[in-house]
Structure formats: C-alpha cells, structure tokens
Design goal:
This protein has two domains: about 210 residues, Isopropylmalate Dehydrogenase, CATH 3.40.718; about 140 residues, Isopropylmalate Dehydrogenase. With about 350 residues, the chain is α/β, with parallel strands linked by helices. Helix 6 packs across helix 7 and helix 10 packs antiparallel against helix 11. Strand 6 and strand 7 form a beta hairpin. Bound molecules: 3-isopropylmalic acid and magnesium ion.
C-alpha cells in the first residue's frame, strides 16, 4: 500500500477548523482508494509567532521539506497586525513559499453550477461554464525584491522593487503553456509592458517560450485592461499567466466572478513534485471558532494535492464530485440559499465524507 507524508500547517483564525474537515475527507478517500496518509503538524504564521517569536520556525521548514505535500489553512489576524513587516504572519507565508521554491501558483476560478446565482455577474456574461486558471509567479517580483526605507533631508521614503530574471520568467511561462496544452490551448500573458521594463522582459521571454508551443494561441494584455476584461467578458480567458503582484490582485478578482471566495482552492508548485495546497481565502478572524466557516476550498485544495503531488487522480475526482453533489442540498452560511440546509463547518466535512463513502 502506498503511504504519503503530509505536513499540515493549520495556521490562524479559521485555519484549524477548515483543515480538520479536509483531513476528515482525506482519510475517507485514502481508505476508499487504498493508500495511507501520515500527518505531521507544524506551525506557521501567528500561532508560530506566539509559540516561538517568529512566523516561520526552522522546524516548520524541515517538516515541510520532508513531506510529499503540505496542506495549509490560513495565516494572519488582527492580533499580529501591528508587528513589523518581517515578523508578521504573512512573512511566514512568503518565507515558506521561498524556502520550498514554490514558484508556480495555480488558482483556478470555476463556477460551480449549483452556485451560479452567487456570481455578481449577469448570466449572459458568465455563460454556462466559466473556468479560468490563473498561473501566478510566486517567488519573485516585488514580493521578493529589495525593499527598504530611507530618509534624506528629513524626508522619509520607502521603496519595493520589481525584478524578474529570464530563467524565472521562462519556468513560469512553461508551467502556463503546459497548463494551456491540457486545457483549451489559450494563454493570456498579463503585464504592464507599456510602462515597466520588467514587463517588457516578461513579454519578450514569454514570446520566446511560445515557439516551443505552436499549438497554444498566445495573447498579451495589460493588467489594467485585464482587470476590466475579467468582468466585461470573462469567457475569453482560459489560462492567464502573470507576475506575483498582478496575479495576487487578478486572482482575487477572478475568484469573485465565481461568487464565493470560500470555494476556491490553490496549488503552489516547485520543480519537485511536492507542493503546497491552500484555499485562496484568508483566516477570517471575525468568524474563527464559531464553526460556520466554509471548509470546501480547503477540501478542494486537498483534491488538488491528490492530483498534482500524489498522483491519485481518482481520489481527487471523487472529492470534487462529492463537493458538486453536496452543494445541491447543504450550504455553509456564506453560500446559503433558501431551499438548502444550513450546515456548520464540521457538518459540511461530514456530508462530503459520507457522499464519498456511499458512492
Ligand atoms: C494570497 C495572499 C498573500 C499574498 C498574503 C496573505 C501575503 O493575499 O495568497 O493571495 O499576497 O500572496
Ligand atoms: Mg491575495
């Protein structure tokens, strides 16, 4: 029997509640598809700051590096908001992305049929089946560039720098082209090449890599136009590839098209097979501990983990099918509509598990 080692980073706020439900579901698919999972827990973010004084303890890095994959809840909260930038919970998240070399962040924005009404866009704009994959560069650009403050003649300034090297752009471009090949063979590279030098290098490099993928229809878009096109005509997009900061912003926008940020999963991948999987929503401190969080994005992240890092596509598919099924009759409060049953975080995890068992 195959055995996988998974490191859990439950994090802060609703993180522990939602990860627990994903573990419940993982245990059910493991049993059904005949593999074993060993879990190790490690601290990241606010909880790590409270316990050790730093958001990313060395031990966490070691436990993540030795795992087949990492499942993360969420980090951050008001308690740690006034700490200096380099010791905030978010610094832990950037740190683990860097330490594991997770340069490729896949953020699918899909509309679940039964949740179509939740989209703020009109029916005729979203069509029947919206499915966009945002491929975000995750370990470079302004998030990792030189930053600092200086004071000259009593005037304070602060700066952050956007810098990309050709190899960094090439590898993320290849991930995006490969993804487009598995989908509808359409790739849109998003930049601000009318202003930024780093974007001009981005464009040149993506163009060069496109020669390796003659079947993929490549277009370019400026980021401001892309932000507009995503709500004007989202159906034009299949795969979007972009820099760290543009991807951060556009993936939030793309997720809202689906109506429910509580539903969307993500995968962060390195050159190695192991990856880190997390919901794209945050730690929602306002509802932490109330038992009303939506665990589905984390459960779907566990499905992505099975598909991309553990080579268990059937198990992944069974989770995705069960989520589709459960939405027909049960909803957490964030996506509740009349005619369905309002359930807690824990009940949602149990229902998904039962559907998988009974299929
Ligand atoms: C995300 C988040 C993070 C980011 C924050 C929490 C540092 O917004 O994963 O999109 O900006 O990358
Ligand atoms: Mg973000």
């Amino acid at each position: 029997m195959k055995n996988y080692n998974i490191t859990l980073l439950k994090g802060d706020g609703i993180g522990p509640e939602i990860v627990n439900e994903a573990v419940k579901v993982l245990n059910v698919v493991a049993e059904k598809y005949n593999f074993g999972i060993n879990y190790t827990e490690a601290d990241l973010g606010g909880i790590a700051i409270d316990k050790t004084g730093v958001p990313l303890p060395e031990e966490t890095i070691i436990k993540c590096k030795s795992a087949d994959a990492v499942l993360l809840g969420a980090v951050g909260g008001p308690k740690w908001d006034n700490l200096a930038g380099n010791i905030r919970p978010e610094a832990g998240l950037l740190g683990i992305r860097g330490a594991l070399g997770l340069f490729a962040n896949l953020r699918p924005a899909v509309i679940f049929k039964s949740l179509k009404d939740a989209s703020p866009l009109k029916d005729n704009i979203i069509g029947d089946n919206l499915d966009i994959m945002v491929v975000r560069e995750l370990t470079g650009g302004i998030y990792f560039g030189e930053r600092g403050r200086e004071e000259i003649n009593g005037v304070q300034s602060a700066y952050d720098t956007e810098k990309y090297s050709v190899p960094e752009i090439e590898r993320i471009a290849r991930v995006a082209f490969d993804m487009a090949m598995k989908r509808n063979k359409k790739l849109c590279s998003v930049d601000k090449a009318n202003v930024l030098e780093s974007s001009r290098l981005w464009r040149e490099t993506v163009t060069k890599i496109s020669k390796e993928y003659p079947e993929v229809e490549l277009k370019y878009m400026y980021v401001d136009n892309c932000a507009m096109q995503l709500v004007r005509n989202p159906k034009q997009f299949d795969v979007i590839v972009t820099s760290n900061i543009f991807g951060d912003i556009l993936s939030d926008e793309a997720s809202m098209i689906s109506g429910s940020i509580g539903m969307l999963a993500s995968a962060s991948l390195s050159e190695a097979k192991s990856g880190l999987y997390e919901p794209i929503h945050g730690s929602a401190p306002d509802i932490a501990g109330m038992g009303i969080a939506n665990p589905l994005a984390t459960i779907l992240s566990a499905a992505m983990m099975l598909r991309y890092s553990l080579d268990e596509p059937d198990a992944a598919q069974s989770i995705e099918n069960a989520v589709d099924e459960v939405l027909k009759f049960a909803r957490t409060p964030d996506i509740y509509t009349e005619g369905t049953k309002k359930v807690s975080c824990e009940e949602m995890g149990t229902l998904v598990s039962e559907i998988i068992k009974n299929k």
